[in-house]
Amino acid sequence: MSCGEPHETDCAEVLDHLYEFLDREMPDADCTKFEVHFEECSPCLEKYGLEQAVKKLVKRCCGHDDVPVDLRAKVMGRIELIRAGETVPDHDVTEGPADVPSPAE
Asked: Domain for residue 103, yes or no?
């Protein structure tokens, strides 16, 4: 998505790192760049607003559920693989080693 206008920070970069911005998991300087971009780019601002609303809804509806420690570790491991640009296994994140069928099955 792009508004068609040139920006100091490209729309693709903003959208690729939108959740890092929402979660404040990026340096302050990058947050400032994104804020400037949102002031200039209404399509990205709209996407930001939508994702922010979804995040608030999920927190309100699911924020009180306890997440099993092993599931959290698997999800975080997959996120780290994706961030590192590595290939992500095709099996479901929630499957454990015992859940993966052997080739003979």
From this structure: no
